[in-house]
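Input record (Table S2, row 359):
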Amino acid sequence: LQPKYVTRIEELGELSPDERIKLRTITGHYVFRINNYYRNLIDWDNPTDAIRRLIIPSESELQEYGSLDASEEIENYVAKGCQHKYKSTAVLLVSNVCGAYCRFCFRKRLFRNTDIHEASLDISEGLEYIREHREIDNVLLTGGDSLMLSTAKIADILQQLRQIPHVRIIRMGSKLPAFNPMRIYEDQALLARLKQYSGPESRIYVMSHFNHPRELTSEAYRAIEALQSSGVVMSNQTPLLRGVNDDPLVLSELLSKLSYAGVIPYYIFQNRPVAGNYGFVVPLQKAFQVIEEAKAITSGLGKRIRFVMSHSTGKIEVLAVEGDNIYLRYHQARDERNVGRFLAMHITSDAAWFDDLTN
Ligand code: SF4
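Output record (iron/sulfur cluster complex):
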């Protein structure tokens, strides 16, 4: 039942011949990939359909905007494929493949054919670093999508991490619950390994990436339940994206559906100024308003999200926006002395990132 992949935009019969020619130029810049399951979630009669916007290239990607590494992740590498920015968290980039490619991805630089290979299947150096740093109690496996690895490879990584006593939490970043839920619930060997390595005092978390309520299909619920039955805790994070989830009704439906399924609504990210992402920009004032309105119409469990900017200096939470004032707090910081630091700054209606704000 595994879905078939399409990597050439020319093969998408749902697009007109003109569209296929135009979009081919874009896929030369930023890689394209979709599968039959996700393709069927698109309302092809609607050119601005939210799911379509998530996955089908658009001409706005060629508009000059941002940079490929907007959060300067390149500064965070401490070993091959291993980033260490916040004291207790290490990040292992274990995959440079995803179930499909989100047009708004902030790591799209990983999927380009260049000499720079930030992700690595060889995690030996990263594991050595983590072993030597006892302050690291949680490790995020990401990339790319960690669940795109073979089950044998995932089992090997989990087993090696579980041999490091100070690593208690293993987080697996994955959009497969949305892109290809069958990969999860059909793979009993994967579920057995997750169960083996997710214990009462040292859980595995799957950090899912549902962006829109229509991604929560019956198949997706089945994958969520399979993960939860294996002792995995699920949290969801999504950026706020223009034309996808920047509507309070859509966003509240997403938050509600996640909480119905027992998935913790964790972070809503301000979309980083990443090259190719111009079409998804929502200014901060509007983003805050949308999120507050969405929270007002979901239950307390749906309201658990934090609205944050993943800036090069740290994870900055947006606490409030009032007129031309914005109030922020460092939730995490590269410089530990900044953790918890409160900031009051000025904002303009078109400000869309921390660097657009003034003192
Ligand atoms: S699943 Fe995550 S890493 Fe992969 S393309 Fe989408 S946003 Fe990027």
